[in-house]
Sequence to fold (558 residues):
Amino acid sequence: MFTLLKLEVEKLFRAKSFYLSFVVLIAFVALMLWGFYTYAARKTGGQAVEQFKYTYESKQYFNGLTFALYSLLFSFTLLLPIFVSMSAGSQIAGEARAGTLRMICTRPISRASLILSKFLVTALHACLLLIFFIGLNLVIGLIFVGWGNLELYPGPLNLVDAPGKIMRDEALMRFGYAALSGTWALLVIAALALLCSVVFDSPAQAIVMTIAAYLALYIVGRVEFFEHLRPYFFTTDMDFWRDVFKPDIPWQSLWHYACTCGAYTSGLLLATVIIFERKDIVT
Amino acid sequence: MWVKLVLLLLFGLMILGAVHFAPPQKDENSTSSNSDSHSLRLLTWNIGYAELEDDTRAHDKDLPAVADVISREEPDAVALQELTGNAQLETLLSLLHGKYRGALAPRGNGDRFEAVLVKQADATFTPVAVGSRYAVGVSFKPRDDTRSVLVVSAHADAFNAARRRTYTEAVIDWAQAQSQSSAVFIAGDFNFELKAANETNLYTDNLKHDSESYSNILRHFRDLGRAAGDTAINDRRIDYIFGPPALREVGRVAVLRDAAVGRMDHWPLLVEVRL
Fold:
């Protein structure tokens, strides 16, 4: 199992798509920095002060931690699930497309171990992506926007229903928690993509199906017509990762949703193993 | 085989964990006790209709039902929004059999009026100019042993968050100026769209304006109705009663969800406090 894992990690680090995901995240941070900087300058120095008497759009509000939080929340919805889908969706289907799957399966390893090692490598990729992205945002935020406490207001970001504040050091710790909770949430996508990767022989098909399912549930969950269906979508449960940024972390709710996501992940993985063990590999 | 067993075990554990940590269901109808020991009972209600109707202001045929709710709950002061004019106020006061006095805000640039009703005979009414709109306030002493109370009935713009923000700033400034001499309560329909669960994650100027308006109010006042939940259809909490931060006790807080009649899209919010 360990050798298998080592081989898969080597494959991951040799893949161009692995590095591409980090490059795109760097580009996204640059875009966020430009948008955040111009918005903050426009509002604090111009429109807000001219139009309204009272504002929290002060330089204390727009700091590096706020920047990192906005950037992370925006990217988590769309960008990170795409990369995780790409990584997991190409694991088995990619081998099938390259013609190496049959050869791998002739080795004296169980198919279940193969699935597990490929999933663990995808989880590693997701974790590295989040750690890199959070770290980059914090460094860029510190250099270009400045340090301060993390101030939270009701409305934007939907984190609190009354104004709140997290002190700087505690906020940095919360970003650490977010790396863990975010990775755990993304594992649902990884497990779904791995299942699609087993079902479909083309990696493109597996990735597109995963992203389509994610986006469809995400969008349908946001439409009020389907409000009563919202609790049954895994996309709703995945949102738990953001709770670590609430001034008082709702631990009970966080554990509930973390366990729900864990059930989705393990259930999907189990289904993947069962399907893959019965699959007739002809490529 | 062991991989499948581990995954199965993990799956079972996660299900058990999810059940174990499931948050308890919240009762959104009311909180705290209902007792007469509280020195002030306030009610706010936008009695207009939903947007789809031809006339979204209050309808005459609904006034007996509105009066019934007020008679049943017996608030010390009532903030009403979206009346068509003085005739409706007079009808309502007569339906309340002279138990309440009332006043309408002057007509601003809109076609609807805010009103306040109060039990005390010696209460004084004050129009509050807020840009091109008006709110209306009433000052009274609910009990002999309590300090003077000022209740403002307000209604912020339904369609424009920037206008809501400007309106809120003006109301808060005015209320702040009065807070030295009275315990000030601001009740009404502010139309803030802040409910986290129903909004997208994306950042919009409208959301930011409502956020800033609400946060600005909370710098000086306390949101007394937060625990009671939604006050309007489509899961919206847009009606508020804000009070002084230093209240001795907040008692019953309730949204009366069986009170709406006709095509009303709001429910009354009732708050009891001890000054």
Observations:
- The two ends of chain A are 24 Å apart (CA to CA).
- Chain A has a mean pLDDT of 88.
